[in-house]
Specification:
Strands 1, 2, 5, 6, 7, 8, 9, 10 and 11 form a nine-stranded mixed sheet that branches. The protein contains six helices and eleven strands. The relative contact order is 0.18. The chain is about 25% helix and about 25% strand. It has a single domain (about 45-220), classed as Rossmann fold. Keywords: Methyltransferase, S-adenosyl-L-methionine, Transferase. This is MT21C methyltransferase. It comes from Turnix velox.
């Protein structure tokens, strides 16, 4: 069962239109910082999707409720890195993860946008959902306050591995999953049902124009 009475929000036009020779660069402003994101059309993960805009905006506007300062944050499926950069601006220790083929563009965007900041420098790491979790991220060493995930659910075959990965990182008490996703297909809602079977999930916000829902979830006590 999904609880909560979500606020209804609009994704604000936080990006700044630019006269640019490059069609693949997007300019955003969050928390007083201009962020320039390089996209790549070769990979799904290298484009900014609406869930990342929604969660970036929500975290910026709700810093009292979700204070990221000096918190340990892991983003799974970080894509272009926009959300990880925003979390870093908000003061978190960020680890941004994605598939190997996305890491080069992800690293580029993160280093470019955080190099002049006094914030904790984000780390970029490979993470293939469901693979090598306990070897690469042993729970004895790694504990995160927040797991961030945006638009990780769409038509792909790794949904069970994704859920397993979310459950793994949230298995320690106190870890909160913040997940924003565009809901389009019945498979998206099926994933939500499965998530609600193993997590206590609350819906925080809905962005109806973009079909985005933003959820907060914590693992159920066994």
């Amino acid at each position: 069962p999904l609880t909560g009475s979500p606020v209804t929000l609009k994704i604000l036009q936080n990006w700044v239109p630019r006269v640019s020779h490059y069609f693949d660069k997007e300019h955003y402003t969050y928390a007083g910082h201009q962020i320039v994101i390089q996209e790549s059309i070769e990979h799904y993960g290298a484009v900014v999707w609406p869930g990342a805009l929604a969660l970036s905006q929500y975290l910026e506007s709700n810093q009292e409720q979700f204070n990221l300062k000096d918190k340990k944050v892991l983003e799974i499926g970080a894509g272009t890195g926009l959300l990880s950069i925003v979390a870093c601006i908000l003061g978190a220790y960020v680890t941004a993860t994605d598939m190997p083929e996305v890491l080069e563009n992800l690293s580029y965007n993160i280093s470019k946008n955080t190099q002049h900041m006094n914030a904790h420098k984000p780390e970029v790491r490979k993470l293939v959902w469901g693979e090598g979790l306990s070897e690469d991220f042993p729970l004895s060493t790694y504990h995160y306050d927040f797991i961030l995930a945006t638009d990780v659910v769409y038509h792909h075959t790794a949904l069970d591995s994704l859920l397993e990965t979310m459950a793994y990182f949230c298995s320690k008490p106190g870890t909160v999953l913040l997940w924003a996703n565009k809901f389009r297909f019945s498979t998206d809602y099926e994933f939500l049902d499965k998530l609600c079977n193993i997590f206590n999930a609350t819906i925080l916000a809905e962005f109806p124009e973009a079909n985005v829902k933003l959820l907060k979830a914590t693992a159920r006590k066994n």
